[in-house]
Amino acid sequence: MESPLLLFPQLNISASKDKSYYKVMKPAHKEEANKASKPGAKQKRNRLSLLLQKTEFHEDDHLGKAANLKKAASVSPEEAVKWGESFDKLLSQKDGLDAFTKFLKTEFSEENIEFWIACEDYKKSKTTHELLPKAKTIYETFIQKDAPKEVNLDFHTKEVTSQSIQQPLISTFDAAQSTVYKLMEQDSYPRFLRSDPYLSLVQGRNPSRPAMRRRSRSFTVNDFQDVRPDFTIW
């Protein structure tokens, strides 16, 4: 009888090849899996670059706050005391208006001072041509229902103002402006005078250097300076 090896030579050769193929491919497969699991050099560089950018952003933010500290010190205690004499006095002073605007931002009611400023600008219009577009913008921004910065007005005041929009006069917003003014004078202004940032200015205390906190939104006296109302209608 002939040997099984001679009868089935292909079977043995195939088995040998399969076995060899398995031994060769297995390490290669493992190597590819290891490569996939390890972050490449390019990926590492990208992560490092992102980390550096975030660090620079926070450092710039901190430096900006430090610069504001120096400017805050320029408000003298005597000037700050005058802000407490009357609400009119506060609004008539540039630094006082800026400080009060910033304070209202912390209470999420800055739309009141922005509306008041818009009305003051409106009354400076020199021609009737200027009145209609300005009146329409103020109405759509602050007065109409669901306006983006709607102020708190009683029904009668809102109705009177709405009816005069079609043919606006210099006095169109007088009633609404007076209502918002009284609201700020009786409500927000007293709280502003009791706030730590204002008391620090009155007592002549220099605000301490802020701690290196990340993404801090705490309200400090250095935030008083270089603040302008967000009202950008004109």
From the structure above, extract its key features.
67% helix; 234 residues; Regulator of G-protein Signalling 4, domain 2; mainly alpha; disordered N terminus
Topology (elements, then pairings):
Layout (H helix, E strand, L loop, with lengths): L3 H4 L1 H29 L3 H32 L4 H7 L3 H6 L1 H13 L3 H13 L5 H16 L11 H9 L10 H21 L1 H7 L32
Helix pairs in contact: 6-7, 7-8, 7-10
Organism: Nothoprocta pentlandii
Pfam families: RGS
InterPro entries: RGS, RGS_sf, RGS_subdom1/3, RGS_subdomain_2
Descriptive notes:
The chain has 234 residues and is mostly helical. It contains eleven helices and no strands. The protein has helices spanning 4-7, 9-37, 41-72, 77-83, 87-92, 94-106, 110-122, 128-143, 155-163, 174-194, 196-202. The longest helix is centred in the N-terminal third of the chain and has 32 residues, at 41-72.
Summed up:
With 234 residues, this protein is mostly helical. The chain is 67% helix and 0% strand.
Which shape, going by the Cα principal axes?
elongated
* SSE sequence, one letter per element: HHHHHHHHHHH
Mind telling me which CATH architecture of the domain at 77-203 this is?
Answer: Orthogonal Bundle
Low-confidence stretches: 2-37, 50-70, 207-222
